[in-house]
Design brief:
single chain, 196 residues, mainly beta, Elongation Factor Tu (Ef-tu), domain 3, 6-stranded antiparallel sheet, 3 helices, 41% strand
């Protein structure tokens, strides 16, 4: 379980295919605090540490993860948003994030507004019921508030601190991001579907 508050970024140093899986090795200042079998969110995708030392660590993405996220397009050198699993009893500064990405979205626009940055996204309409005006959404692991919500689009504002300390500074129109919708909305939608 995560909060969507990014702790650090990491640099992708190796990508290796093994059957339908993808081995990813990252260099990060978090590496020395990790151990094998821990969960860590990578641009919002929960992956398990399979090897680590004080400078770098490795995780594996399976076929299901690759099908629902943008991990398959990652290249060496990519800067990745990182968050370790939350500690029970800590403040929940973002919102409840599972690290289970629902879909990808296309960045359709980016603009600067007096120091902050507004990003616009387009997503598959099948997920329209899972996002609401001023509701929480997790983009590449970052807990954000959606506005200008349409059937296939929404926008978010990134404050200067978040812009400088996450991968948003490297995100441009035409690129895809990982999206996890609010878990409460998913449970409500499932309940409605079962009552139909």
């Amino acid at each position: 379980m995560f909060t969507g508050i990014i702790e650090s970024t990491g640099s992708l140093v190796q990508v290796r295919e093994e059957g339908s899986n993808l081995h990813l090795t990252l260099k990060s200042n978090l590496s020395s605090s990790l151990k094998v079998d821990q969960s860590i969110a990578h641009d919002g995708v929960c992956l398990t540490v399979v090897a680590c030392d004080e400078h770098q660590y490795s995780v594996i993405a399976v076929a299901e993860t690759l099908a629902k996220t943008n991990l398959g397009s990652w290249k060496v050198g990519r800067q990745v948003n990182l968050e370790r699993a939350m500690i029970l009893g800590s403040r929940l500064d973002g919102h409840i994030v599972q690290g289970h990405v629902d879909t990808t979205a296309l960045c359709s626009g980016r603009e600067e507004k007096n120091g902050s940055h507004i990003f616009h996204f387009e997503f598959p309409e099948v997920f329209a019921a899972l996002i609401i005006e001023k509701g929480s959404v997790c983009i590449n692991g970052v807990s954000l508030t959606a506005f200008n919500v349409g059937r296939q689009s929404f926008s978010v504002t990134i404050i200067p601190y978040t812009f400088l300390h996450t991968g948003f500074q490297h995100l441009h129109p035409g690129e895809t991001v990982n999206i996890e919708f609010d878990i409460l909305g998913k449970y409500f939608r499932r309940s409605q579907e079962l009552q139909s």
